[in-house]
Fold this protein.
Amino acid sequence: MQNRSIDTEKMLLAQIASGNQKSFTILFEHYSKIIYPFALKLTRSEELAEEILQEVFLKIWTNRENLLQIENFGGYLNRVTRNYSYNVLRRIAQEASIVLALGKQLSEKITDTEDTILYRDAEQSLNTAINQLTPQQKLIYTLCYQEGLKYSEVAGRLNISSSTVHTHMKLALKFIRTYFVQINILIWFYLHLNNLK
């Protein structure tokens, strides 16, 4: 760690490995100031950098028993952050190519009456799914997707943290995707062609 001796760092990691949440908080407060800017530089997105920050520390906590086996913790964090960033960017690129292909196919057919009806049905199903979200998830989803606010802007408006906004959005999107899978409507991707994060 920067400004920490090797012995102090190892002691802190040993405490985390044994499940000490206070030590984990200290580690988070120190390294989040390093990881977030690095992820932001790689992704050029506040939302993605916040997501990567959460994922990196979730990995650290869930695999905390293995922390004492890491020789260079700073180097380990650098590698994990870089890998998560590339994976996120790769996932977005893949989703975008799928969505663009579906959007092109659907836009060519949308003039047909049957396809127009299908589109309206899908839109109605989306609204039904949104209405089944918890009040907080529904509010955050509406602010992010329908009003186009960034996570940080929603956090400021609702006086909550960006990570809380991210968590609610993740749960909301998971519910909506599951809902659409259950009713087998793939047009969900078309409806969100311009809103993917």
